[in-house]
Specification:
The complex is a heterodimer of chains A (about 260) and B (about 260).
Chain A (H helix, E strand, L loop, with lengths): L13 E12 L2 E12 L3 E5 L6 H8 L7 E6 L2 E2 L5 H8 L2 E4 L11 H12 L5 H14 L15 H13 L5 E5 L7 H18 L2 E6 L2 H7 L2 E6 L2 E6 L1 H5 L4 H12 L1
Chain B lengths: L12 H24 L6 H11 L4 H25 L6 H39 L2 H7 L4 H39 L4 H8 L5 H27 L4 H35 L2
Helix pairs in contact in B: 2-6, 3-4, 3-6, 4-6, 4-7, 4-8, 4-9, 6-7, 6-8, 8-9
Classes of the chains: A alpha/beta (about 260), B mainly alpha (about 260).
Chain lengths: ~260, ~260
């Protein structure tokens, strides 16, 4: 298995740079030397089978897990050199959309959105908070649900609310963990459209962890195939699709068969 | 540990995980003290938690405190009667309730009611990634969730404990007044005749220590819950059992210390 060679060009446009990332849990090696870079304004999908290390990778990017070896540079800051306060400052510039949406179930839709804002930005007036919440809800088409509780929302609406909660801090980088998992095809298409809208409206650069080829094709400029803990191929959808690599062909053929 | 050949455990899986648990609990407690005195302080969340813990336990504490007062007075009466010492009943109940029963009963009830609720809530938040969501939103989940709950239990349980003692004495008076013609004023005067500042102070200290124990144990178990909903159930169960065990252990230690001070 030959690993994809990364060309680190135009470094001023690189918002995320991952170099030689390794992560193990006990004797299980999950990431075995991952290299990747994300350009400013780009959407990149990380495709791979379940257990290939996709979620571990995104959790390392969000600072939720520490790598055993390797470097992650995000918006010019090296993650492993940051103090907790500096990491929090960086986190305010990135948004993380969880697979499970991870909505605060003890809070209303309004509170789910206002909570990160009021906790991180001091001295905001009630009107400023209301305006920010309404703007974020409007962006995801959930303005009519402002007074609802999260349990009253459908799966797709929960995903949208999870994305809105990240948008309220106006992130520069978005990290999506399986944004279309468990959704019907129509809702998947709506979420895909929303991801592209967020990219255009908020000028974000995104990494989208998914095993959904339609999502990857419709939302991303490039895709990266994560096989057995390392990237086997990185390129446009057509470039990766046209590869002769057996494991990638197998992944694509199973997805299209299903 | 790998240099021990094929055996990857230092002693055995059970013993290793026990010591690991003790060490992690120690680290967790240490982190509480580091975070508790560092800004920002989430006063609103502490007040919310005091309301959840304190006010919502009030009816249960009232009922239990009253019943305990009545039952203990009823049970003690025959023994005192056999010595012709029924007049000592208020004094005996004052000592029993204020020194021991008030804080102990309150904390045992709270270990079940409040401890399980904290552990289940934090455990659910953990397995549904809500704690991770806070962390990636640059909100310190330990400070917001754990510190506020531990501070709230440490404030609420001493207050509830004194309230329980007061209600327990009312229950005791109810029983005494049904048998003898005693006024509430005389009953309370007798009940407090043998109560010293040390008794009040030790009662408060006990309740404070028990409140802290319930908060920290329940938060610890919930904060590190794993393996989905089953793990949350397990964490909740362990939180209640461990809290009750530690409360009895602390009772033993505090009583020894207070007795030592009393007779010093």
């Amino acid at each position: 298995m030959e690993k994809e060679k990364i060309q680190f060009a135009n470094t001023e446009d690189v918002v995320i740079k991952i170099e030689g990332l390794y992560k193990s849990f006990g004797e299980l090696e999950v990431l075995k030397g991952v290299d990747l870079m994300l350009q400013k304004g780009e959407n990149l999908a990380v495709l791979g089978r379940s257990g290939s290390g996709k979620s571990v990778l995104i959790k390392i990017l969000a600072g939720l897990l520490k790598p055993d070896k390797g470097n992650v540079t995000m918006l010019g800051k090296q993650l492993n050199q940051l103090k907790p306060k500096q990491l929090d400052e960086l986190r305010l510039r990135m948004g993380f959309s969880f697979q499970s949406s991870a909505l605060y179930d003890g809070m209303s839709v309004y509170d789910n959105l206002s909570f990160p804002l009021t906790m991180n930005v001091k001295h905001l007036s009630k009107k400023q908070v209301n305006d920010a919440v309404e703007e974020a809800l409007d962006a995801v088409g959930l303005i009519d649900k402002i007074e609802s509780d999260p349990e009253e929302l459908s799966g797709g609406q929960r995903k949208r609310l999870g994305i809105a909660r990240t948008l309220i801090m106006k992130p520069e980088i978005m990290l999506y963990d399986e944004p279309t998992a468990g959704l019907d095809p129509v809702t998947c298409a709506e979420i895909n459209a929303l991801i592209v809208e967020v990219q255009q409206q908020y000028k974000t650069s995104s990494i989208i962890i998914t095993h959904d080829l339609t999502c990857a094709k419709n939302t991303c400029e490039r895709i990266a195939m994560l096989i057995d803990g390392a990237f086997l191929k990185i390129g446009t959808f057509d470039e990766v699709f046209a590869t002769d690599e057996e494991q990638i062909k197998k992944f694509f053929s199973y997805n299209f068969t299903l | 540990m790998n240099n021990l050949g094929t055996n990857k455990y230092l002693f055995s899986k059970g013993i290793d995980s026990y010591f690991e648990g003790v060490y992690n609990g120690y680290q967790f407690t240490l982190r509480f003290f580091k975070e508790a005195f560092r800004s920002p302080f989430h006063f609103r969340e502490i007040i919310n938690q005091c309301f959840e813990i304190g006010l919502k336990s009030l009816s249960l504490i009232t009922l239990t405190g009253f019943i305990i007062g009545v039952v203990f007075t009823k049970q003690s009466r025959p023994s005192l009667e056999s010595f012709g010492a029924v007049s000592w009943l208020p004094s005996l109940m004052g000592i029993a309730i204020i020194r021991a029963l008030g804080p102990l009963v309150t904390s045992l009830i709270c270990a079940g009611k409040v401890g399980s609720s904290i552990s289940a809530e934090l455990g659910s938040m953990k397995v549904t990634e809500q704690i991770d969501a806070m962390e990636v939103s640059a909100i310190n989940p330990f400070k917001y969730l754990v510190v506020s709950r531990v501070v709230a239990t440490s404030i609420s349980i001493p207050i509830l404990s004194f309230y329980c003692s007061f209600i327990g004495l009312i229950g005791s008076y109810y029983n005494v007044s049904s048998e003898e013609a005693t006024s509430l004023q005389v009953f309370y005067h007798n009940a407090f005749s043998n109560i010293s500042f040390l008794d009040i102070f030790s009662s408060f200290t006990k309740a404070l220590v028990y409140g802290f124990t319930i908060g920290i144990v329940s938060s610890y178990k919930g904060f590190f819950a794993t393996h989905g909903t089953r793990g949350v159930g397990k964490a909740t169960n362990q939180a209640v059992i461990l809290s009750i065990f530690l409360i009895f252990l602390e009772e033993l230690i505090i009583v020894q210390i207070v007795n030592w001070i009393r007779y010093f």
